[in-house]
Amino acid sequence: MILGVRFVAAFAEGSAPTVEWLFLDLNSYFASVEQQERPELRGRPIGIVPLVTEHTCCIAVSYEAKAYGVKTGVSLEDAKRLCPHIQLVEARPKLYVEYHHRIVEAVNSCIPVTNVMSVDEMACRLMGRERALGNATTIRSTSNSRSAP
Ligand SMILES: [Mg+2]
Fold it and tell me: Which of 45, 50, 53, 115 has its CA 20 to 30 A from that of 72?
């Protein structure tokens, strides 16, 4: 799974740069979970829909679909116009919550998760030596690799 991680850095004047928080924001989360569960979907443009009907929108899209300009929230009509071969996948919310718990556990094995903001976003407050830029970068990399199923 691809885990997008954003840093928020706090720079104190006259000292080495430090990082106070590590924000983890999973990119294309629902689509990435489906690609993890179903290898045949990997590398393909997919759109996650709440129901398989013509009158809905994509609630998540894969990186491959984004490359065609398909964005989250786009109607199916527009998604198909932008990417005629997009594959639609019905959402499985329980599965996304299961993965969420696994990912929180994996990150917690590296650094305590301070806040969970949503199914695909969490934040870790860095303490002491963790705040040094080099150490924070290592924590990010370790969290990233442990979160990959
Ligand atoms: Mg996200």
Answer: 115
